[in-house]
Amino acid sequence: CFLQHQVVNLGQGFPDFSPPQFVKEAFIRALNSENSLMNQYTRGFGHPPLVNILALFFGKLLGRDINALDEVLVTVGAYEALFCFFQAMVDDGDEVIIIEPFFDCYEMMAQMAGGRPVFIPLQPKPVSGRMVTSADWELDPAELANKFTKRTKAVILNNPNNPLGKVFTRKELELIADLCVKHDVLCLSDEVYEWLVYDGKEHVRIATLPGMWERTVTVGSGGKTFSATGWKVGWAIGPKQVLRHLRTVHQNTVFHCATAAQQAVAEGLTKELECLGKPESYFISLPQELQRKRDRLAASINAAGLKSILPEGGYFLIADVTATSELPCELYDDKLVKRMITEQGLAAIPVSVFYSAEHKKEFENYIRFCFAKEDSTLSKAEKILQEWK
Ligand code: PMP
Ligand code: GLN
């Protein structure tokens, strides 16, 4: 029904604004380069300039020396890095702990590898007198500890989280890390929104916690980092003994990622490393811009009588739509979103798609909006929300 209707699209997570000029220019330079090799195959496990800068950049962020050849793998978007992890590390009957709400492919990728997803939902704690934030959704430590069994192979962490926008605190990460170490379990840490953290919150990388480097694969996305999701450049960073298995999957499925796109991301990261933490950094200006857009969308949603759950990070804001609720139905969020698209011309995503079958019904009163959009798009959404009220 999406294509039949002229809709303001706050559904899928992609920016409708342009990537920064310096990475676009780097891409064009690569295509027009005198070095004809820029338009040919490069190293299969990652274009040398890109793996070198990733090793340097993440070496700094993770506080350790990273070997560009053994400990970095470039993939077709973060998505392929996730796929390689599941195919390489999860065997038949292995249990994989997934924190809900979760980026939807984790469940299917775990199952495709023969694994059994084990779900644990973040629980919203009661809040009164102020706006709820993603920090108010917490894991129950005892429940989490109970999910670990002899068959647990990996925990999947998404920090900042899609769709909720939760940025896990150091204490929460320590809890997860201690359990991983105790039970000798791997951690897949999907950190594609690593630069999009708001209100001065700290983004802690779980790979930096004691005992975690050797069991963590950290996944990132050039698309999310430089607002160029169509370029599909991603990476996995982790210890050699784990990454070698991901490399085998990559080599025998995708083999190689687009050279010029990798060159552009390499040049972008090189520039960003030079100005890390300085006002001219894109990793400073982008989250500032997005925080402003987040606040603007949250205000429009609240004015329409819905309740925003203010995200601490990422591209998305989920809204509690209980106030609009009608008679009981199959899944309320799904019904509401279909009606919004066809009748109001505004697209969002029902949050139940980010839950397992066993927990969908409990969380059917939330819908997800993407705020990584031009101000003109947010104005159109605001107008629809005003009329809706
Ligand atoms: N992980 C999460 C949490 C995402 O939201 C997305 C969607 N962009 C991806 C991974 C995939 O990223 P990419 O576009 O780099 O493949
Ligand atoms: N991550 C984006 C979203 O959640 C894009 C979806 C995707 O890559 N499958 O909307």
What is the secondary structure topology, with strand pairs?
Layout: E1 8-9, H1 21-32, H2 48-62, E2 72-76, H3 77-89, E3 95-100, H4 105-112, E4 116-121, E5 123-124, E6 137-138, H5 141-147, E7 152-158, H6 170-183, E8 186-190, E9 216-221, H7 222-225, E10 233-237, H8 240-251, H9 259-274, H10 282-303, E11 307-309, E12 316-320, H11 332-344, E13 346-347, E14 349-350, E15 366-370, H12 375-388
Parallel strand pairs: 1-13, 3-4, 3-7, 7-8, 8-9
Antiparallel strand pairs: 2-10, 5-6, 9-10, 11-12, 12-15, 14-15
Helix pairs in contact: 1-9, 2-9, 3-4, 3-8, 10-12
The structure holds 4'-deoxy-4'-aminopyridoxal-5'-phosphate and glutamine.
Nutshell version of this structure?
This protein is an alpha/beta fold and 389 residues long. The protein is 39% helix and 16% strand. It has 2 domains: 8-19 and 281-387, Aspartate Aminotransferase, domain 1; 21-275, Aspartate Aminotransferase, domain 2 (3-Layer(aba) Sandwich), CATH 3.40.640.
Description:
This protein is an alpha/beta fold. The chain has 2 domains: 119 residues, Aspartate Aminotransferase, domain 1, CATH 3.90.1150; 255 residues, Aspartate Aminotransferase, domain 2 (3-Layer(aba) Sandwich). The strands form 4 sheets. A 7-stranded mixed sheet has the order 2-10-9-8-7-3-4, with helices on both faces. A 4-stranded antiparallel sheet has the order 11-12-15-14, with helices on one face. Strands 1-13 form a two-stranded parallel ribbon. The mean pLDDT is 96. The structure holds 4'-deoxy-4'-aminopyridoxal-5'-phosphate and glutamine. The site of glutamine has 4 residues, from loops.
